[in-house]
Design goal:
It is built from two helices and 15 strands. The protein is mainly beta. The strands form four sheets. Strands 1-15-6-12-11 form a five-stranded antiparallel beta sheet, with no helix packed on it. It has a four-stranded mixed beta sheet with strand order 4-14-7-10, with no helix packed on it. It has a four-stranded antiparallel beta sheet with strand order 5-13-8-9, with no helix packed on it. The protein is globular.
Length: 228
């Protein structure tokens, strides 16, 4: 039975509040209100290249070539939150896949993609650690994926991920020392791993670059740990 509903043009902050509080206290309040949490999940939609609910490597109809979660809600692995992209059935690209020499789908993929970050990072957590034609296939120790950090001051830092060290084949559970099993998906696996940047300078973007071997790396989610 409301006759009229009008939005107030005033803030919920009491009038004159800023004049009653010391400058240092007001600065602390503003810092608290604008502070990010400890974890910053990155939006993979800005870099996703493939739909994981369809065949990702040789044939879109290949059932075994899919990485399908029971649901696409946020996941937590060892206390780290990850934000998955909902593929909306099979319509929305929801994973990063980079180019490889095998398979018509993988040959169409880009050699590199970039994710905006704009934050300093204590660690970069990756939900992936798998690929097509990865360990125990291929040569162990070859570079499959380079995580390239572009700092705000223009400097660049590379973190190579190697076949059989951090990267394993997706099609079944295969353990490697540099990552750990995070999820079993209908028999396939997704793994988790972490990278520690060498610098505390804000990272402008995180670039995923295909390494020189034949492995086709896949990344499902990325979370930046910005600290306390």
């Amino acid at each position: 039975e409301i006759d009229e509903l009008m939005a107030s043009k005033k803030s919920l902050m009491p009038d004159g509040f800023e004049k009653q509080v010391p400058t240092e206290a007001l600065a602390d309040l503003l810092a608290f209100l604008t502070a990010r949490g400890k974890y910053l999940p990155l939006d993979l939609r800005k870099a996703a290249t493939v739909v994981s609910t369809k065949g990702m490597f040789t044939n879109e109809n290949a059932d075994l070539e899919r990485l399908v979660f029971a649901d696409w809600s946020p996941k937590v692995v060892d206390g780290v939150p990850f934000q998955l992209v909902d593929p909306r059935g099979d319509r929305v690209p929801n994973a990063i896949e980079l180019r490889g020499p095998e398979g018509p789908i993988t040959r169409r993929m880009p050699r590199a993609v970039s994710l905006p970050c704009n934050a300093p990072a204590r660690a970069i957590h990756i939900l992936g650690g798998v690929g097509g034609w990865a360990f125990p296939y291929g040569e162990k120790g070859t570079v499959s994926l380079i995580v390239r950090l572009h700092y705000a001051d223009g400097k660049v830092e590379d973190h190579p991920l190697k076949n059989g060290v951090e990267i394993a084949d997706y099609i079944r559970v295969v353990d490697v020392p540099g990552s750990k099993l995070a999820f079993r998906l209908r028999g396939q696996q997704v793994r988790s791993l972490s990278i520690q940047p060498d610098r505390k300078t804000p990272i402008e973007s995180i670039e995923f670059v295909k390494g020189p071997d034949d492995v086709v790396p896949v990344v499902m989610a990325v979370t930046v740990e910005v600290g306390d």
